[in-house]
Design goal:
Structural class: alpha+beta
CATH class of one domain: Mainly Beta
Number of strands: 8
Strand order of the largest sheet: 3-2-6-5-4-8
Oligomer: single chain
CATH topology of one domain: M1 Pyruvate Kinase, Domain 3
Radius of gyration: 16 Å
Length: about 190
């Protein structure tokens, strides 16, 4: 299995392009990458809990495949449509991450995917509104919040329960800031 899952911290400025970060790659372009999934963010604040829960002291940034580890934001506080200034780039949260088996496969920990989903620590994708550069340690500042009612966690739950709560799925699918792929996925479930 070829994967670009393993990420490592980098030194210096990295160019943030419309489809990904310079030097980064996505092995499966059908399900990963592209303009709506240009950046995968993950809360750096989750790592202490993971290290303790999994008895994995060396687990650190990049461990969940993210190319942007952020402090002070999580699935419970970040919202669909939030616009962030990160370095000189302008990013917008486009969807929750719907993690796949590669998390468990890459690390050889069969239980990891289920734990990620149970704990609600899966990350989120961002689109690039303005290309720029980003360096480790750069401030990430929220500059706009159009949908404060739609946290990443709530959006993920609504998507996973889309057939049980079709109203929430429809409401979420109408957010202009939500990625078109997620909009279509939610519409097809809520209309069937």
């Amino acid at each position: 299995m070829w994967t670009a899952f393993g990420k490592r911290p980098v030194e210096g400025a990295v160019r943030v392009g419309r489809e990904n970060l310079e030097g980064d790659a996505q092995a499966d372009r059908r399900h990963h990458g592209g303009p709506e999934m240009a950046v995968l963010a993950y809360s750096a604040d989750h790592y202490p809990a993971w290290r303790a829960e999994l008895s994995w002291p060396e687990l650190g940034p990049g461990g969940f495949g993210e190319n942007l580890s952020v402090e002070g934001a999580s699935e419970e506080t970040a919202c669909i449509g939030d616009v962030w200034r990160a370095g000189t780039a302008l990013l917008q949260i486009s969807s929750p991450r719907n993690p796949c088996h590669k998390i468990a496969d890459y690390w050889g920990r069969p239980e990891l995917l289920e734990r990620v989903l149970q704990r609600g620590r899966f990350g989120w994708y961002l689109r690039v509104l303005e290309e720029g550069e980003l360096s480790a340690g750069a401030e990430v500042q929220r500059v706009e919040r159009p949908h404060p009612e739609w946290t990443v966690l709530r959006a993920h739950r609504a998507a996973m329960e889309r057939r049980l709560d079709r109203g929430a799925a429809r409401e979420l699918s109408r957010l202009a800031a939500l990625s078109p792929r997620w909009q279509e996925w939610l519409r097809s479930a809520s209309e069937s």
